[in-house]
Amino acid sequence: MAQTCRLGLLLVLLLPVVGASMPSTVVRLNKAMLSYVSESGKGPLQRAMQVTVPHFLDRSGEVLRPTRVQILNVQVLRLQLKFVDGVGVRLFAAANFTIKVFRDPEPLELILPMVLLADARVDQGSIGTPVVSLSSCFSLFNKAIVLDGSHSAPPALLVRVQKHIRAVLYNKLCLSVSNLVQGLNVHLGTLIGLKPVGPESQIRYFMVSKPIITKDYISLDINAVLFLLGKPIVLPVDATPFMLPEHVGTNGAMATVGLSQDLFDSALLLMQKAGSLNMDITGELKSDDNLLNTSVLGQIIPEPLVEVLASASNSAFHSLFSLDVAVNLSLQLSVSKVKLQGITSVLGEVKLTVASSNVGFIDTDQIHALVGNVFEKPLLDHLNALLGMGVALPNVVNLHYVTPEVFVHKGYVVISSGLFYQN
Length: 423
Hints:
Blueprint (H helix, E strand, L loop, with lengths): L3 E3 L1 E5 L11 E7 H10 L1 H8 L6 E3 L6 E3 L1 E16 L3 E14 L6 E17 L5 E12 L3 E2 L8 H34 L6 E4 L2 E7 L4 E2 L3 E12 L2 E2 L22 E6 H14 L5 E3 L11 H5 L6 H5 L11 E16 L2 E8 L4 E7 L6 H26 L1 E2 L6 E11 L2 E10 L2
Parallel strand pairs: 2-18
Antiparallel strand pairs: 1-17, 3-14, 3-16, 4-5, 6-7, 7-8, 8-9, 8-10, 11-12, 12-14, 13-14, 14-15, 16-23, 18-19, 18-20, 19-21, 22-23
């Protein structure tokens, strides 16, 4: 008859629970990220620049005639972003506007080259998200080029048309860029949303200070709080905040994410409080080496085991003894899209200590092999199922980590990764 053995687990993990500061994370966005944004941002910027131009009032004749002007196409030839030390990001864009003036007897088509310069300040929002604001913006226009095949226009008219278009674009282009920035802020606001960790637990990230901006990167100091049934998991506070060393990770990575030991401690405490680490190992487990039955235990423990272990009901068993099982585990970390996942393996031997016994003296040497075989595989299966669910890393909607590399250092973990925005 298969029986049940309940084992109290004392897990000594790679990152043990200790008194520490609030869970903390540092997200460092590097120059490579700006290059990616520059390339992928051409399309949105072109669409934003496709503004409406009001009619041009043609004064060339005796009668003042309103003439329709339309931007047929905008081509961003170059978009460059760079960090401005202590401020934020500087934008440089070079674009060509293809414009049609519906003038009798034939329309006039021309290309107007333009350069747009803007500075965006990055700050900490009141709700703990990054906030971008346009601090300066202006545009410079070159002389318009009349396309071949267009009806020739008097030079004076061409000057007036260009002046009209430039005046409109000068005001509207910066407003369009400002609207893009506001849309970006809405997107950045998704950083602080609650993200599920398990059925009854979530994680929430939020900025705790203004970003640090250098010519090479922007660094965001972010706290991570884990919740169980709506209540935060809080560790004892240490006065020393987590700081990510300057040169860590992989050169050329778009993002460098530092995860302090506090985050792992908090995650482990969450699993303990949620009861996720509790497990029942039964004789019904399908395994060739599962020897958890009365005949095998009877060879080790000299008592009337059949009577003691006989079940009183489907859910109640008499207790023989309880063990504390100390297990050292190696933890391998990986990242999938936005989740940090792990897989464990037993490091060294499983150590057994008798916590209590109702059958007299227990020789742990005799039961070591039995319990080790019965215990090790179910434990690893159980933990790897938990760790496989993963914990969400700092992210915003539709932004994924790609080709990540994970480095484990004393007291923190570093993730070097590319980024991919999926529309």
